[in-house]
Amino acid sequence: MIGRLFAPGALVGSALLFVPIAIFSLIAWQTFGRAPQGTVTHYLILTVAVLAFSTFTGNSGILSFGHAAFMGLAAHITGVLTMPVAQKGVFLDKLPSWLATTEMHFLAAGLIAVVLVTLIGFLVGIPISRLGGPSAAIATLGLLIIVYGVIVGARDFTRGSQALIGVPKTIDIPTALIFVGITIVVARLFRDSLSGLEMRAAREDEPAARAIGINAPGRRLLTWTVSVAIAAVAGVLLAHFLGVYSPKEFYFQITFAILVMMIVGGMSSVSGAVVGAIVVTILIEVLRKSEEHINAAWFEEPTVFGLTDIGLSLAILGVLFWRRDGLFGYWEIEELAGGWRRWFGLKKADNVAVESPVRIDQNGSLDVSGVSKLFGGLRAVDTATMSLRPGEIVGLIGPNGSGKTTMLGCISGTLDVTEGAVGLDGADITQTPAHMIARRRVGRTFQNIRLFTHLTCIDNVIAALAASGTRLATAEMQRRAQSLMAELGVAEYAERRAGTLAYGLQRRLEIARALALEPRYLLLDEPAAGMNETESDDLLGILAGLRDSRGLGLLVVDHDLRLIMRLCDRVVVLNKGQVIAEGAPEEVQANPDVIEAYLGKRRAATKTAPHSTQGREEP
Q1: CA-to-CA dists, residue 554 to 458, 511, 522, 570, 585, angstroms
Q2: Kind and range of the H or E run holding 288
Q3: Are the beta carbons of 522 and 444 closer than 8 angstroms?
Q4: In angstroms, rounded to a whole number, what is the distance separating the alpha carbons of residues 103 and 209?
Q5: Is the model more confident about 361 or about 543?
Q6: pLDDT category, 571, cuts 50, 70, 90?
Q7: C-alpha atoms less than 13 angstroms from C-alpha of 221 in its C-beta half-sphere
Q8: Domain 363-441+519-619: which CATH class?
Q9: CA distances from 191 to 271, 288, 383, 429 (A)
Q10: Which region among 313-322, 421-430, 571-580 has the lowest average model confidence (pLDDT)?
Q11: What are phi and psi of 572, to 5 degrees?
């Protein structure tokens, strides 16, 4: 289920992009000569192609080299289906009889091509979606090379490396313009859908996305499939615009041009992709004319070969140097125009009411039984056992390197357990993926803050609401997210990018995002890190309030022993991966093994407790 988030903004942004393009294109259709009309039509088709690339790359953050392969497949399928029977007998005389006698209208043939290519893309996308970063990008490059080889090798169907001749030329400016408008709307609606938001969250930080319940490979596969369908449409349009084409039309040259369009305009923005296509199309036309012949009244130079590729390469270098995120960066056109949420009355209210949370069922527990985690020969956690009940606050402390963060990773599923078991309310979740553990209402924060920095603060929280299975109307989703942010004191920053907040506010936002899961258990990894004493005291009040109002269980890892001893009902102490003490705070403070673990045998004789430094843990 894709789900709808902010459709009004997507439609406004689509209109702001499409209307100027439509006006210019229709004027060109009525007033320009044949050659300039061809240039405009080609630009419109490339806009569809760049939106295909951008739908995947912009939302997933993975650079794709392979979408031109799907354009080529679609072009050859529709070409064979629409070629006149007489020309098939001349150029494709080895076709099966049923195909040799088939001659279809380009719309029917195009629909068949898009469906077939989308299905192929879905199957190919299953392994690619499980990869990430450079590995996925290299896989798409391999895909481009393989598909090119397949098309060239299928001589009976494609004429091999020779051009396919006789494909009906039916695409003009009005037809291409219709598909551009549809594609812009589809790309924007997908980007602003709940699934698109989840994908963009995973683009920013995949471990954090999994921790709030986002199935990143599943979202990548959906995004890939949508983008493949758009690429297939672009291939059909280009086939019926050119009329004569060979496999090399859908190989490195067009891939390079489209990637330049994305980089110049901004890979993470639909608006950037469209504007980048305009800028680069103009640049290509200028460079091509110059490449053919540089001529002025007082100067004449022979043909300059390779000038187009040189110019496009310099364009990439210039953008990466002066504006590395492209002309639009992570923004859409309506956001730069003043913020579409404000246009539709979706801006946050001055005073956001905090909803009364529903107390959770106090039955059950989160149990760690003999868990070990090995990294090579190192035992980061060694047969550790502990438990957490709803309504309870447990502190997990220990010297640096004792395995506290590793323990949280084993519980939350971000790390695989080597030995032992983790149980959640009686069910074994030891081998459960991290996103499924999160959906079973186990939230967590990270030692190093992991927000989706290029998303707004409110979108960070809405992504967690969506991943938890919440599907509400736009206004209701917004209201619930605002309420959670107000509970943590960050509602006034709702429209700011998360990466621009101060450190303490980012910590609060991360907790608000975790609360969107409505967790039964919340794992907090050093929530007070980097805070002064006043901020730490404020955090103590917030955490205690969460337990009192919601009844959730809190497992808190922190080096601020003053906070731990004041906040927690029980304290568990790890040293070298093993649990060396557990009990009430005052019992743990007096435990000789704990004192020795923190201070060493020699200093332990002169110290009575690890918190005797009157504040934070001594290194």
Answers
A1: 24, 12, 5, 11, 15
A2: helix 270-292
A3: yes
A4: 49
A5: 543
A6: very high
A7: 16
A8: alpha beta
A9: 11, 34, 45, 33
A10: 313-322
A11: -110, 135
Pairing, β 393-397 against β 570-575: parallel
Closest CA to 277 of 42, 496, 89: 42
pTM above 0.85, yes or no: yes
121 Cβ contact partners less than 8 Å away, ≥ 6 residues apart:
70, 224, 225, 228, 229, 231, 232
The predicted model gives 34-46 an average pLDDT of: 93
Q: What tokens appear for 447 in the block?
A: 């030692």
DSSP assignments along 337-360, one per residue: TT-HHHHTT-SPPSSPPPP-PPPP
Cβ burial, residue 315 (10 Å; 0-12/13-18/19+): buried
C-alpha angle 255-111-267 in degrees, rounded to nearest 5: 30
Q: State CA 453 to chain mean position distance.
A: 12
CATH code given to domain 7-250: 1.10.3470
Q: Is the pLDDT of residue 599 over 70?
A: no
Q: Which residue has the tokens 């369908």?
A: 229
DSSP state of 248: G
Q: Alpha-carbon torsion 186, 192, 194, 198, what sign? A: positive
Q: In the 3-class helix/strand/coil scheme, how is 568-586 assigned residue by residue?
A: CCEEEEEECCEEEEEECHH
Query: H or E segment at 550?
Result: helix 533-550
Mean pLDDT of the region 332-353: 59
**Residue pair 595/607 in contact by the 8 Å Cβ criterion:** yes
Q: Which residues pair with 497 in a beta bridge?
A: 456
**Where exactly does CATH 1.10.3470 map onto the chain?**
7-250
How big is the chain by its Cα radius of gyration, in Å? Answer: 29
d(C-alpha 510, C-alpha 91), whole Å? 63
Q: Starting at the edge strand that comes first in sequence, how are the strands of the sheet with 393-397 ordered?
A: 442-444, 521-525, 553-557, 393-397, 570-575, 578-583
Helices 216-242 and 34-60: crossing angle in degrees, nearest 10, is 170
C-alpha–C-alpha distance, residues 563 and 574, integer Å: 17
Mean pLDDT value of segment 188-209: 92
Strand-pair category, 366-375 with 299-301 = unpaired
Lowest average pLDDT, out of 66-80, 356-370, 419-433, goes to 356-370
Reference 370, options 430, 321, 442; nearest CA is 430
Range(s) within the chain of domains with CATH label 3.40.50.300: 363-441+519-619
Question: What is the rounded CA–CA span in Å between residue 470 and residue 115?
Answer: 31
The sign of the dihedral angle between the CA atoms of 372, 448, 508, 479 is negative
**Average of pLDDT values for 582-606?**
78
DSSP classification of residue 431: T
| pLDDT-wise least confident of 52-56, 207-211, 217-221, 373-377 | 373-377
| Helix extents (H) in 130-243 | 133-153, 155-158, 173-191, 194-204, 206-211, 216-242
Mean pLDDT, the chain, integer: 87
Which is nearest to 366 in space by CA: 411, 432, 330? Answer: 411
Rounded distance, CA 91 to CA 94, Å?
9
Average pLDDT over residues 65-74: 95
